[in-house]
Every structure is written in C-alpha cells, then in structure tokens.
Write a structure and sequence with these properties.
The structure is a single chain. With about 250 residues, the protein is α/β, with parallel strands linked by helices. It has a single domain, classed as Rossmann fold (3-Layer(aba) Sandwich). Helix content is about 45%, strand content about 15%. It has a 6-stranded parallel β-sheet with strand order 3-2-1-4-5-6, with helices on both faces. Strands 7-8 form a two-stranded parallel ribbon. Helix 3 runs parallel beside helix 4 and helix 4 runs parallel beside helix 6. The longest helix has 21 residues. About 40% of the residues are buried. The structure holds NADP nicotinamide-adenine-dinucleotide phosphate (NAP). The site of NADP nicotinamide-adenine-dinucleotide phosphate has 28 residues, from helix 1. NADP nicotinamide-adenine-dinucleotide phosphate (NAP) binds next to helix 1.
Length: about 250
C-alpha cells in the first residue's frame, strides 16, 4: 500500500493539458496516480517523473476509460493501492466527428466525457472523502468546454446513441453539457464529505485534440494559430484557479 499523503489521480495525463498538469502537480510535491490507455506512453511519463522527483510516488494504471468494465477494474486497483486520495482530475476526453461506440454500445463522447468522470467519482468516493485529511478540501476537477454554449437543450433519450455525431458542436458539446449538469447535481452531496467538485473550461488550447479536422470546425482550425494558447500556460491558469477555489 502506497503512502497516500497528497495523492492526485489524473486521467488522460499522457498528452496535451493533462501532461502539463501532471508536471505542475509533481513539482508541487503531489504523489500521482496516472490513469491512461497507453502502457507505452504511461511508462515513458512515469520514467520522466521519477527522474525529476525521485522522492515522490508515481504509479500508472492502464484503462480504456470508454469501457465501463475497465473503469470498474481500474478503480478497484486504485482503491487497493490508496486509502486516501486528495484530488481527482478527470481530464481524458474525446473529440471526433466519427461514430465510436463503447464496448457497452454507448456513444463514445458520452461514455468517456460524461460517464467515466461520474463513475470514477462514485467508485473512489470513500478514498476522496478520506483524502480530506491531507488537504483543506479534496477536489474533483471535471473538464468541460465553452462548446456547451452551443447546446440549447439535451434530449436524454439520445445521449447514449445520438442520431448524428457532429464533432465539437454536436455530441462533444452535449457530453460536456451533461458532465457540467451532473457535476452540479453532485456538488452539494459531495461537499458534505469535504469534497469540492469543480467544473473547468481550460479554454482554447493547442493540443492534439484541436490540431486535426477530426471534429474541429474549419473556421476554428484557421483561427487556432492566433487564438489557441499553449497547453503549459492553460494548465498553469487552471491549477491556480482550482487552488483559489479550495476554501
Ligand atoms: N484543447 C482544448 O482546446 C480544450 C478546450 C476545452 C476543453 N478541453 C478538454 O480538456 C481535456 C484535455 O484535452 P486535451 O486538449 O489536452 O486533449 P488531448 O491532447 O487529446 O489529450 C487527451 C487525453 O485523454 C486520453 N484519452 C483519450 N481517450 C481515452 C480513453 N478512451 N481512455 C483513456 N484515456 C483516453 C489521451 O490518451 P492518448 O494519449 O492515449 O490518446 C490523452 O492523454 C479534455 O477533456 C477536453 O475535452 C480541451
């Protein structure tokens, strides 16, 4: 069992904003549990973290977070390693205009962007509650997007298998709206255990998610070099915002 003083669980830490957040938290002295789908990328990341911070604990867990059975398995693995978790960053995300279905036949954006953060919150809830001992308030950070402003209403009957996918302003925006709504619904209940759930929008960021035409509207791809910021800068802003929200 790992010494879980100030442990943060991060999903989607192998690239983009998640990678930068992992570096900042490691520098701040956090132990990190990294949940990713690529063993190779995770091993590389763990090696780099161990080299820079030899006295801290960094552990990798492998899961396709679009797969409910993988989520259950990985949560059990995390629970058996950590009794206390002081932060959960649900960063892993999907943006595509293609129809990808999860092994449970749930549309991919909804499975990964909405259901995975919800399931991890529930499955790690006892450890998150216990993590309050190490920090003023345990935090769960869920990654939403300004794309939710494009969503006028959600037909819940269509969430698991929408008629069209539609990329950024379609199933992606709907899944992030659902995540935002679910986070708001859980807020009060979690606060009773000292767990603060925060929904953040990192803002337009230069990552692999926004670098291809797979889900990104053409006009945003044109504006990207001018308007989108580096992941390192957005990660720094985001961590500062999370820190100032903790009471
Ligand atoms: N970039 C932006 O402008 C922007 C704006 C608003 C919100 N966001 C949100 O911020 C978060 C991070 O975005 P980003 O731009 O940094 O994305 P990114 O560069 O595409 O990184 C996404 C991360 O999620 C992981 N991932 C993808 N599918 C997964 C799966 N099925 N199971 C486990 N891990 C999976 C990726 O792993 P691999 O390395 O294996 O692919 C990667 O580590 C996302 O939730 C995104 O929706 C981003």
């Amino acid at each position: 069992m790992i010494n879980s003083k100030k442990t943060a669980v991060l999903t989607g830490s192998t690239g983009g904003i998640g990678l930068e957040i992992s570096k900042i938290l490691a520098k701040q002295g956090w132990n990190l549990a990294l949940v990713n789908r690529s063993q190779e990328k995770t091993n590389f990341q763990l090696e780099e973290l161990h080299k820079s911070h030899p006295s801290q604990e960094f552990t990798g867990f492998i899961a396709n977070l679009m797969d409910a059975s993988d989520i259950n398995r990985v949560a059990a693995e995390i629970r058996s390693e950590y009794t206390e978790i002081s932060a959960l960053y649900n960063i892993a995300g999907l943006l595509t205009d293609k129809r990808i279905m999860s092994p449970q036949n749930i549309e991919g954006h909804f499975a990964l962007n909405t259901l995975a953060p919800y399931a991890l919150t529930q499955l790690l809830r006892n450890q998150l509650g216990a993590g309050v001992r190490n920090i003023q308030q345990t935090v769960i950070v869920n990654f939403s997007s300004s794309a939710i402003n494009a969503v006028k209403e959600i037909d819940v009957r269509n969430l698991t298998n929408p008629e069209s996918i539609g990329g950024l302003m379609g199933a992606y925006a709907t899944s992030k709206t659902a995540l935002t709504a679910v986070s708001a619904l859980m807020k009060e209940e979690l606060l009773k255990d000292g767990i603060l759930i925060q929904v953040v929008d990192p803002g337009p960021t230069k990552t692999s998610m926004t670098g291809s035409s797979d889900g990104m509207p053409w006009y945003l791809l044109l504006l990207r070099p001018l308007l989108f910021k580096p992941a390192k800068l957005q990660a720094q802003r985001l961590i500062s915002a999370v820190e100032s929200a903790v009471s």
